[in-house]
Target: Branched-chain amino acid ABC transporter ATP-binding protein
Amino acid sequence: MYIETKALSKQFGGLSAVNNVDFSIDKGKINAIIGPNGAGKTTFFNLISGVHKPTSGQVMFKGKDISTLPANKIAELGVARTFQTTNLFEKSTVFENVVVGHSLRTQSNLWDAIFRTKRLKQEQDQSNQKALEVISFVGLSNIADVPVANLSQEEKKRVAFALALATDPEIIFLDEPTAGVNPDETEELSALIKKMAQQGITICLIEHKMKMIMELAHKIMVLNYGEKIAEGTPKQINQNEEVIRAYLGGSASA
Ligand SMILES: Nc1ncnc2c1ncn2[C@@H]1O[C@H](COP(=O)(O)OP(=O)(O)OP(=O)(O)O)[C@@H](O)[C@H]1O
Model:
């Protein structure tokens, strides 16, 4: 089993944001989490990536319990979250933003920085090369030197993907990756998500756009009031009575 949650629960005061959720994320596939507003999707992400500690239950990564590891340790294991586009440095270029991502994988310290050591130089070269590689992968090579402030929302989303990819992740968590972009751009970003999965990167995403999820995901989990009400292929989810009632408001093609 790759990533697995066992009876995972998180309470905020008296509120059960995530309640007793068993879920497994399939390696190399596109896994999706859907559900109405406030269903617990973001909290579930935060539990897996170590932002929140569970109230009870476990998160297992390749058979190891990571429930109590801090977020930076979980990131070092190869679990990356995309950053909101608002976390990008607007005045810096695409390249300058992305090069930061790879620093998670480097060892240099203050000593290296003061004395400009060989290790620092080698690692800077590696980070620069990695940044160029992932910028090309997300299709932004021609604007690598443009400040982020001058980019469209869709291009900023690509920068956020590149930043996550620069950390050499095994799995990427995407929280509403296409929020705020138009339908054509949504399709283009979907194609990019597929391309990441084809590279062997496991994807886990939250999305409200049902049509996109139905076309993209291999596996879907539906949360409602913190509880898992269904899990399955897009086809199974589309036909699930409880999902149709709770989430799709009676129309499976919403
Ligand atoms: N840090 C927090 N403190 C208190 N309550 C919280 C906290 N984070 C989330 N909640 C509550 O937990 C519940 C689940 O929230 P969460 O953001 O996980 O839902 P969501 O499915 O991601 O919603 P949306 O689709 O609106 O982003 C909500 O009722 C929310 O108000």
